[in-house]
Every structure is written in C-alpha cells, then in structure tokens.
Amino acid sequence: MKRTSRDIRTANRYEVLRHCFGRPAVSRRELAAATGLSPATVATLVGELAGLGILTEVGFQDSAGGRPRGLVAVAAGHGALIGVDVAETYVHAELFDLALNVVARADRELRPGTHRPDQVVAVIADAVAAVREQGAGGGRVLGVGVCMPGLVDRRDGVSVYAPNWDWHDVPLRRLLAEHVDLPLYLDNPLRACTVAELWFGAARGCDDAVVVNLGTGVGAGLALGGALHRGVTNGAGEWGHTTLVLDGRPCHCGDRGCVEAYVGAPGIMRNLRELYPGSPLLHPDDQTATIAALADAAAEGSPQALDVLRETARHLGPAVADLVNLLDPEVVVLSSWVAGRLGGPLLTEVRRAVARHALAGPGAATRIVLSPIPTDPVSLGAATFALEGALAAPVRA
Hints:
Elements: H1 5-18, E1 26-27, H2 28-35, H3 39-51, E2 55-61, E3 69-74, E4 80-86, E5 90-97, E6 102-109, H4 117-134, E7 141-147, E8 151-153, E9 158-162, E10 167-170, H5 172-177, E11 184-187, H6 189-200, E12 209-214, E13 218-224, E14 227-229, H7 260-263, H8 265-275, H9 287-299, H10 303-327, E15 331-335, H11 336-357, H12 360-365, E16 367-370, H13 377-391
Parallel strand pairs: 4-7, 7-11, 12-15, 15-16
Antiparallel strand pairs: 1-3, 2-3, 4-5, 5-6, 8-9, 9-10, 12-13, 13-14
Helix pairs in contact: 1-3, 2-3, 6-13, 8-9, 8-10, 9-10, 9-11, 10-11
C-alpha cells in the first residue's frame, strides 16, 4: 500500500514517542540521535505531540556550552488507552495511562460453545466497560485496541478468518461500535506481542526479532529492520499453520500436520494423552487447568510432566529452528500464556532442541528467552495500536 505524507508523519510521531517510554526525561537531541530524524524534524514532531497533550516539557539539561537543552517526557495523566486481548478461551482488558502503566484490569471467560460474534462482542464490551469504570479518574480514553486471533483486516476492522471459531469476514469493529463509544482499532495478537517486546521487552534495541506466541493458537510475530513486519495483507507470522508433519494431525485450519496441532495448548494436551492415557494431569475439557497442572508438576520434577515438555519441544524446536535459519534474528521470545505458565522447564527443552536443528551460525547468534513483560503483552501491544490511532489525528491547538 502506498504511504501518504500523513502516514509518514504519523509513523515519525510514533517513533519519537517510542523512544520517550521508560525514560523520565529526554532531550530533542537525544531523540534525533535515537530515531535518525533531523533535529528540525524532531523539534516539529515534539511540538505536535505536546499539542496533542501526549508530551510535556519537564525542565532543562545543562550542556557543555551554549543554551541548556529542554527536556520532555510523556504526560502520563493526560489521557488513557485500553488494550484488549481476545483469545479462544478468555477476554483480558487493561486500562493504561499514556505512559502505558496499567491502571485497571478485567478478565472474562469465553466458555465452549459461546463463540458466536454477538456473544464475543458482548464479552469484549463488558470487559471494556469494567476497566473504564475502575479507572474513571484516569483521564479521557483516547481509544481501544482489540486483538483478535486469526487473520485481521485492521483497516476495515474485519475478522477475516478465525479458524478455531470458524469465523469468516466478521465486521467486528462495526459490531463493537454498537456497544463501545470510543475509537476502535482491530489487530492481531502476533503484532501486539511484537510491539510490546520492541517497546518494553526482550526485543528492545533489536533490529531483528521473532516473538513466538504459544497459546491455544500459535504464531510468530516478526520485527525486521527494527520495524514491525505485517506483510501485504496484515497476515505475516501465521507460522503456526506451516506444515511440520506431512499428513500429520488435523488442524482447525483444515490442513494436517501444522505446527499449532503439536505445540498449541490442545496439541500439548494431546501429547499428554498419547504418552500417558488417563493421567491425573489431564483435564479433558479445560486447557488452562491442564497447562497449569503440567507446569506445577514439571516444577516438582514429575517424570510425566517433563516427558510431555520434551515431546512438545521435540516438535517446537525444529519449528523455531526454521525461523532462526530463515530470518537469522537477534532474539526469539517465547510469549503468551502457555509459554508463561510452562516457563523455564519448557525454555530449557526448546533451547536444546533448537541447538540440534538450527544452523551453527544463526543458532549460536540467536538468543531464545521467555518474555520478561510482567503484564499481558497482547493488551499492552493493543494499547499501542490505539495510541498510534490517536497520533494520526489532526493536531489540536
């Protein structure tokens, strides 16, 4: 898609602002050095962000000679943002201040058989209302970012394809707008997790990174050349639906042998069932309880649980090694709720498996780590999409 001058200005505002997060104050000269933009351009963009109320002047920095340098910081209390993580089994919403500190949280369950668009929309709207009520003193809400599993058309706000729910071309933003009176920005959790890691997590300062989402579904968010890679249709990263085993297990997408069928939560449950039929660790109708039981048992050294993690890593390792060989990233981050819950024991097995399958050069250069972000990275990334939308608005006096 051809970028307009407004698109470029919005991207530059976004880039300047990104380098302000996590710092108490920063000078315009430091921002110019960090972004590669000219000092004059940075001065103009800082003025625009101050006009939007997102940056504020906070004092001066002494210089070796000449005038002191003015310092700016994010005006955290000027407004708020909402990020919503919609997964196959839950909806998690968070309200953030403008410095992207969490102000309020709300969790809602998505029960089996309650995945019709109207049902999911009602749950999302309820979670958004809950965090707005909790954070009523946090300033005006600039927008809501909503991340949906599957393929998403972010421009038109359409859930193009969600295989685990058999959704096709659902006009989700229009349906949500009937219940939520705020600007809405729809996207995919792979993109959200990647942005969260670039801004606040293990990929900060990296040009090339892969964020592997391990949940009910599986995917790989990509950062290439220091920027989020979306692909032509916003569909980049559907690595979970690449073929791992020819004529293997059936997948929700309709194909067989996909990565997701072996390392997503349902796939891990199947690994457990095949290795240890009747295991007390298996909760047949509850992914969350099964993963939690495996994690607790592995932490205690259970041979059953460790066998299941090794079997999972036996499939996940070669699939991650493919990403390492193809993209040669600085870091691969294991993210989302399954990776977070299984934690160190899974990470150890994955590192061993990747070392066996990756080429020596890229394999040695790539770090494989767990996400260090303490909050939900999808909600955090979703909030940055709402912030991006606010930055695209005309500057107010």
